[in-house]
Structures are given as C-alpha cells and as structure tokens.
Request: fold
Amino acid sequence: MHIHKNAPVKKSLRHFEIIYTLVRAELKSEANTSLCGWLWWLLDPALSLLIYYIAFGLILNRADSGFVPFLCIGIVFWRWFQGSVMRGAGSILQAAGLFNKVQTSKFIFPLVSVLADAFRFSVSLLLLGVFLAAFGVRPGAEMVHLPFLLLTQFTLILFCSTVFSMIVPFFPDLRNMIGHGMHLLFFMSGIFFEPDQLDGSLRTLVYLNPMSGMLSSMRSVLLRNQPPDLSYVISVFLVSMAGLSVATLLLIKHDTSFAKIT
Amino acid sequence: MTLPTNSVFTLSGVGIYYPTHRRNFRSDPFWVLRDVNLQINESEIVGIVGDNGTGKSTLLKILAGILKPDKGALEKRRDLMITLLSLQAGFRPNLSGRDNALVNGVLLGMTRKHLLERMDQIRELSDIGDFFDEPLKTYSSGMKSRLGFAIAYFTNPDVMLLDEILSVGDHDFSVKSRTLIQEKINEGRTTLIISHSEHLLKELCTRLIWIGEGTVLDDGDPDRVWLAYRSHYRKRIGKVD
Reply:
C-alpha cells in the first residue's frame, strides 16, 4: 500500500472546509451574476426601505408619528426570515447534482444557504442602523440584548430551513405552499401593526407565530430602549435548537435517501 | 466481525432499487442490482463491464457511500480515503476556473491548503491559459473537462473509483490525461474502473468484473471475462437478427 500524502481529513474539519468554501462560492458567484455585483446586497434592502418610506412616509403622510422606523425594523427582520427560509427550503433539492456525484452530508446544504443569507442580512442590518439614526432613533443600553435576538432568529431560520429542505425533495409542492404561507405570515407578523394592541384571542394567535414576538422584541430594544420579552425569546431559541437537533439527526440518519430520489 | 486484512470492500447479497416514475402517489421499485457478491482487495485494479443501465455506476456510488444498499451487507475499511473521481462536481458558471478548482477540490476531499499550494500546477495542467481566471460560462465544454481533470488529478485517495473518465478533451489532452491517470493507478492504489475500452481494460486491470441482470455474471482474468462478455453480447445481437 502506498503512503498517502493527504491522510483522510478529520470529519468535522472536512465539514467546516466544505461549508466555508460553499458559502464563499455562493456569495462570490452571486456577486459575479449582475453588473453591480455585491452592491446589490446594499441596494436591495435600501430600495425596499425607500419604497416603504415613499408609501407610508410620503403618500400616507405618517412620517412624524414614528411609524416609519417601526415599519423599517419589521421589514428588515422579516425579509431576512422570509428570504432565508424560502431559499433554504430548496437547498437540498438544488444540490442534488452535487451529492449525486460526491458523498456529502446533507445537513450542510441548508446551513450553507442560511449562512450566506446571514451575510446578506448583515449588510441590511448596517443599513437599518443608518436609517434609524437618520430618523433620530438613538441606541440605548438595552442594545446588549441584540446579539441574543439575532442568534435566536438565526436559529429559528436554520430550524425552519432544515425541516423544509428535507421534505421538499420528496414533496416538491411544499415550496409553492411555503410561498403562500409566507405571504399570509407577512400580514400576521405585526410588521404593519403592534400585536399588543389586538384583542385577546387574536393577539394569542398572532403571537403563536414566533416572528411576531421576535419583531416586538427587536422594536423594544431598538426603538424604545426597553428589555425584550426574554421568556418568549428564550422559548423560541430553545424550541428552535431542539427542533434543529432532531432535524439534523434525522438528516444524518437518512443521508443516502436523497441521492436515490433526486 | 473483522474483515480479512487485505479486503477493502466486501459485498454480500447487495441489492438496491430506484423508485420508478410516480403515478397517483405510488411507485414500483426497480431493482437495478439484486444480488451482488464481491470482495475487492487492496492494490487490485478492477475493471467493470456491462451493458448500459445494468447498475455499474450505481455500484460505484454504493462503494463511494453516495448510495446505501437496500438489501445485503456492505463492509468497507474505515481507515481508507475512498474517492469517486467526479469531474466538474459543484462547478458554477459564474465562478472563475480558479474558484471552481477550490469548490470541486474540497468536495473531492482535498483541503483548501493542499489546493491553494497546487493552484499553479492545476492551472498548468489544465492548459487553458488566461481562461483560468475567467468565469466558467465562457469555457467550451472541452475546456471544462480539462479543468475538471486537472483538479481531480491532485487528489490522492487510497481507493480510486473511476466512472468512464479515463480520457477527456481533444486528442492531445486525451492522450496526456490517460497517461497521467495510468501513472496514478500504477502507484499501487486500489482502483475500480468502469470502461468500455477493451484495450484499456486489458492493459490496466488485474481483474475484470461483468455486471448484468442485477448480479455479477463473471469475475476473474480480464482476457477471459472480456471474451465471455463479448460473446454473450454477440449471441444476443444474433438472436435479435
């Protein structure tokens, strides 16, 4: 037997290398797709914020009431959730050409997709900061909660993406359904209104959607310098973590089923 | 259960099915391999022949860990790096040849460090000049295969699985790639080759396996097995006439 020069790379290191390389490749490839390239990571959220400012701030004339910053926070964090989960949902199906040629653990694909989106979102977040500052919003001490809120939303997104991505290859129609579900949630997540102003049962219904509570908490921290609803956020975090672990274990267990059906 | 020390793969009664096209939410299984019994030993160079659609590629995918058998048992040595040399896996049209070399190379089991150190050699071997830093979508298909081959050449797996990739590109490059891959095979690593080239199989292989009807139809000396496979084929064609 010959002496091999590159001894089998340790599994976790190999996963790390694949994830890092694929995230980089996805972002780089996206930047090369259009003429303005990476500038779109900035232009996309900037234009969508501008549209909402024109619609609500200028046309509906609510610029003074503090509604525009309220709305912007809702839009930016919601866009992260919706875009990332929808892209993540198709991630395993889209990688079929790849894992049919090379043995690759399937949990990598939703993770790569969600990480690339987290990068895109970080640009939006910087922009949101500039936007809020322009509207006179000043950060306060409660900002210390922001990293945990971001981590929680990241975990929630990864959990949803992983679960959907493992179902979509067997049931591709789910992707269409997710699209409509997201549209419904868009109006039910308190992007345009404060869920706390709703009546009892309706309020409970809206808060069953984890994004509602996340948006309320983001606003408490960013707009009012108040602590977030920590018990709510911690519950979202723990449930997402537990769900993500179960989904990942299932993916590892049924790893080779995907190459067969795609 | 422990394997005899020189066995790399041992397959007993291995079978696998694909679901056929789904109608009304039901699908019938198609057993492409039914009952495969094989032992592949270290340093063997094994050729695989058989008609199209008889499960040769599926067999290599099972050995590479891409697919899992639905019945029977597969035992493989865990301390060996087994690589199915998949040219162009993970290639993206909007990335340069250089970036694609990183993606494909990492997927083939190389580390980024290993690849970055050999990037100039990959560029040189692919022989595509300045296109190496241009997006892949500007390449001809021949240039893509050259690049794919150049990357795969720098893997050093213990067990090499080759699915009809022994020669790629135009005449000159095809001769070059074939020579290089033969050198790699002759370094003594265990190799399984799917090919339809009589010359190549007889020249390289120490053993030939004929796959058909979901099982191993013949296994042994390359000259003998090739003859059996061909005469069976001729007989079948004769029947049709």
Observations:
- DSSP finds twelve helices and no strands in chain A.
- The CA atoms of residues 78 and 186 of chain A lie 8 Å apart.
- Residues 1-8 of chain A have pLDDT under 50 and may be disordered.
- Chain A has one domain: 11-261.
